[in-house]
Amino acid sequence: MYKTYFGMTGEPFPKDIPPQELFLSSHFKELSTRLDYLVKKRGIGLVTGEVGSGKTTRVPSGCRALCTTLNPGLYKPLYFPNTTGSVLDLYKSLAELLGLIAPSSRAKLYIQIHQEIERMVESKKISPLLIVDEGHLLRIEALEELRLLTNYHMDSQDHLTLILVGQAELRRKLGLNINEPLNQRIIMRYHLEGLTRKELPLYLKHYLNRVGVTNPLFSEPAIEAIYQASKGIPRKVNLLAQASLMACASKKSQIVDGDHVREAVTEIS
């Protein structure tokens, strides 16, 4: 409804925006720099953030979207989204990502995966990059197995780049004594914050421009209300912006004001 009312050519805040069209916040740029360092070092990295902060699919130069920027002749991205299963489930999923026919034995799976990663690096000169999403849900034994997978030739060589992505709880879990061997090997840590207050109007303008809207649609009181309610978390911003536009259109208004945002907050709460 509001898309037609405001003359938009599409949905301004969809979930599937191409990486090259995403808004580059200061935090995203910092994360991009750190991930670039991590990939070059072939180490273990940790990326955490609040729900909806954009750790994976909405991070334009980081994590899952990082895969789109890598040379496929030099890197093999492996995105692993399901982290709630057993170690055997983890190995089977990883074997599938590597194109292996998985045996039923956990020990054989480990050896086969280890050998395939080594073959990729030594023979094909391709560096595998494993991105484990929702890492806060990983079982303790799974975290240990991931550490072992990165262990080659008594730690003298790093063949696998591992990025653990999750909510802030993951940092606490890695701080447990039982996870100390893994925690000590993490060479890059970054906690992704939300948009700053100064970035929020630029963020809204960026996505409105994508759908052909060049006139400002959000008043300063509306922007302030969105920021206070969302704390700059992109997913919350998107939901509030959509609901506010709907409220504005339903009242035949031309500009989203604070009242429209407050109505949206009540609607999505």
Summarize this entry quickly.
Helix content is 46%, strand content 12%. It is an alpha/beta fold and 269 residues long.
Report the CATH C-level class of the largest domain: Alpha Beta
Helix content: 40-55%
The CATH homologous superfamily of the largest domain corresponds to P-loop containing nucleotide triphosphate hydrolases
Order of strands, widest sheet = 2-3-4-1-5
Helical segment tally? 12
Our measurement of the CA-to-CA distance between the termini, rounded to an integer number of angstroms, reads 21 Å
User: Structural class of the secondary elements?
Assistant: alpha/beta
Strand coverage percent: 5-15%
Number of separate structural domains: 2
CATH topology of the largest domain: Rossmann fold
Largest β sheet strand count, sense and barrel closure = 5 strands, parallel
Outline: elongated
What oligomeric arrangement do these chains adopt? single chain
List low-confidence stretches.
57-61
- Proper CATH architecture of the largest domain: 3-Layer(aba) Sandwich
The radius of gyration computed from the alpha-carbon positions, rounded to a whole number of angstroms, is: 22 Å
Give the averaged pLDDT, no decimals: 88
